[in-house]
Amino acid sequence: PEWLLLALPNLAENLLSTDSLTYSGVYQYNAAIIPFVMIAAIHGTRRLITCWQGWRGEHSESGSRFPQKSPSMKHPVLSTAATQAKDGVTFLAWRQSIALPLTSMYQHSIITLNARITASISFMKRLLDRVQKSPVSMRVSVYAQARRTSLACVFSRKWHLFSERMEPLARTIPLLRLQWITLVWLIAMAALNLAAIAPILGSFWADHIPGTREQNIQRLLSMIPADASISAGSTLNPHVSEREHLAVFPSLSDSNPDTPDIVQYIIVDLNAVFPEDRVSTDNEINHLLLSGQYKELARAEGVVLLVRNST
Fold first, then answer.
1. Which is it for strands 230-232 and 246-248: parallel, antiparallel or unpaired?
2. Most confidently modeled of 1-5, 170-174, 272-276?
3. H or E element: which one contains 266?
4. What is the tens place of the pLDDT at every residue in 131-155?
5. DSSP category for residue 300
6. For 20-35, what is each residue's pLDDT tens digit?
7. CA 96, 98, 100, 103: dihedral to nearest 10 degrees?
8. Are 262 and 293 in contact (CB under 8 A)?
């Protein structure tokens, strides 16, 4: 569980947010939480297995995880060692000529850094000793130690009672079966989570036939010449990303120095504009129309297509 403590700040930020996208669990705002949840699940599963072995009276196999080296691996052939020693003399002379100055600088820096760290630690120790010797600090320390001892005794007693209740169950379920039960439970919980969140995730799948709205958007996009410069809204921009001269509305010119003029066409999906940007987007389009720079070429289901008057 202590691994979950690292995720608490981000979890609190998401849960306390007033934006439904933040705490919905669908978007990228949970990315910083997932690694700690996975690590906590791994350590928690390992602790469960260890406790289960203890309740069953079993012990995990001890021993090194790595194979011991054979005598032949520990003692290389003498001829190989002699060859390596001969080559090492030349390399050592070259290394000393270059590495000695760097080593000297490194050692001097380490000595200086150690001296400063030692001085800082000594100062902190003196400060802590002075604080700990104060009457208030001593009373707080005595009270905290008493509470800690009391809580430890209570926890130990409750854990002992819990272990006594779990031992009969643990003896009836072998460790291998417990691991399979844990695996099935994890898969079931993942499936349950997917089933609960599926209606929201459904909007990300291209599993439907384009409706009238998509067809109208495609019709407006086909009205723009292939070589024309265009400024598209953020939702329509990916559909015209293959064009050479492209800007993201409300910008009216791309970053290419060869095209200093404003774009020839503007296409924006007003229904997909964020609520906080809707007023400014409407004002910008109305300004472009009233100023005479652009005229409306077509409009369909909230998607507006403007063309520059000089085009």
1. parallel
2. 170-174
3. strand 265-269
4. 777 777 778 878 888 888 888 898 8
5. E
6. 778 777 778 888 888 8
7. -130
8. yes
Say yes or no to pLDDT of 67 above 50. no
Give the CA distances from residue 242 to residues 257, 261, 307, in Å, rounded to whole numbers and listed in that order: 18, 20, 19
Q: In the chain, where are the structural domains located?
A: 2-60+173-199, 212-308
What secondary structure does DSSP assign to 40-59, as a single string? HHHHHHHHHHHHHHHHTT--
Say how many CA atoms lie within 13 Å of 191 toward its Cβ.
6
Element of type H or E holding 265: strand 265-269
Q: What is the DSSP letter of 291?
A: T
Cβ pair 266, 236 in contact under 8 A: no
Query: CA-to-CA distance for 32 and 20, rounded, in angstroms?
Result: 18
Give the whole-angstrom CA distance, residue 270 versus residue 236: 11
Buried b (16+ CB within 10 A) or exposed e, 13-45: ebeeeeeeeebeeeeebbeebeebeeebeeeee
Token pair listed for 77: 């052939």
- Distance (Å, whole) CA 268 – CA 284: 11
Neighbouring CB atoms inside 10 A of 297's CB total 16
DSSP H or E stretch at residue 21: helix 20-23
| Cβ-based neighbours of 277, under 8 Å, separated by 6 or more | none
Cα angle 221, 301, 230; round to 5: 30
How far apart CA 6 and CA 287 sit, in angstroms, is: 49
